[in-house]
Design goal:
39% of the residues lie in helices and 28% in strands. It has 333 residues and is an alpha+beta fold. A hairpin with a 4-residue loop joins strand 11 and strand 12. Helix 4 crosses helix 10, helix 5 packs across helix 6 and helix 5 packs antiparallel against helix 7.
């Protein structure tokens, strides 16, 4: 199995079958005991809506696991879903992880996967898996660039001859953009909104460039003064401005990554450009903004949210060919 255990969503890929599961990385637990009630889509509907006895949580924040017990429960749940209730069947797992995590965080991730029922665990950096899943010619002696904008992190890598030439990972991505929107609504309209509503606003009227046609969106939440339900109308122009700071931090990091690559690779990138993937790749106007700021051609990968998971599947299918690009549980231990 290949697993993209993301901040926002978890995707599971099975050898010979492709992506078989796609669920939000959310778990509902009983407060105080930590007992898992439900996982995935059903749990996401409970965010901000649970009574006092229950709590809907996301065990990953900014690409890093904050609760390894819950992460272990997620992995065990998906292993059983894919392989049935046969406890004797212990699959090999390929887990994608942000390139910026520490050795200790890698060890904790491997330990969680082994306790969840994996026979052996292989780790791969998310941008490496994303590049392969996006179909970039990573094995050629030619520079390729991938930008993976997920829920918790933005992973940027320049790859040549199956190795990473330079890479950067920042904890600014979809979640940070959602938070910028909720902060704007609170400061401007004295209206408190949750993460689900912030995401709705972003998807409906958000973007990285001023909209050609003015649009508005009715945002709903809790009045900061009266603590009563209230709605307010927000314009697309406001949302673009609210998103500007985190979006420009991503662009700034892309530029900084380009500044670190060798001249020959830079020359390659003038021809090959860069590829965007992850949910953030779907932000309106982001490709155009990056093209303007870097001077490189920019393309959005086909099915951008699937690239990391598809990449883990390609590793599964070609362990002999790509095995040298993976870190095994023996090495991470």
């Amino acid at each position: 199995m290949g697993i993209d255990l993301g901040t926002a969503n978890t995707l599971v890929c099975v050898r010979g079958e492709g992506i078989v599961l796609r669920e939000p990385s959310v778990v509902t637990i009983i407060s105080g005991t930590g007992e898992v009630v439900t996982i995935g889509a059903a749990a996401k509907t409970m965010i901000g809506r649970t009574p006092g006895r229950y709590e809907a949580i996301r065990p990953l924040r900014e690409g890093v696991i904050t609760d390894y017990t819950i992460a272990e429960a997620i992995l065990r749940h998906y292993i059983r879903l894919v392989h049935g209730r046969n406890r004797l069947l212990q699959p090999r797992l390929i887990l994608a992880h942000p390139s910026g995590i520490s050795k200790v965080e890698k060890q904790a991730l491997v330990s969680s996967a082994l306790r969840a029922g994996a026979r052996r665990v292989f780790l791969v950096e998310e941008p490496r898996a994303a590049a392969i899943g996006a179909g970039l010619p990573v094995e050629e002696a030619r520079g390729s660039m991938i930008v993976d904008i997920g829920g918790g992190t933005t992973e940027i890598a320049i790859i040549s001859m199956a190795d990473i030439v330079t890479t950067r990972s920042i904890r600014i991505a979809g979640d940070r953009i959602d938070r910028a929107i909720s902060e704007h609504v609170r400061d401007t309209y004295n209206l408190k909104i949750g993460e689900v509503e912030s995401e709705r606003v972003k998807m409906a009227v958000g973007g990285c460039l001023p909209p050609e046609k003015s649009r508005t969106f009715l945002v709903k939440g809790l009045d900061a003064f009266t603590n009563l339900p209230r709605a307010a109308e927000i314009s697309g122009e406001e949302v673009v401005e609210a998103m500007r700071e985190p979006v420009m931090e991503i662009v700034k990091t892309i530029r900084a990554t380009l500044e670190q690559c060798p001249p020959e690779i830079a020359a390659d990138l003038l021809d090959t450009g860069m590829t965007l993937c992850g949910g953030g790749a779907l932000l309106k106007g982001l490709d155009e903004l990056i093209r303007t700021e870097t001077g490189l051609s920019v393309r959005i990968a086909k099915n951008p949210m699937d690239c990391v998971a598809v990449g883990t599947g390609m590793f599964l299918e070609n362990l002999d060919r790509f095995g040298g690009m993976l870190e095994s549980s023996d090495q991470a231990a």
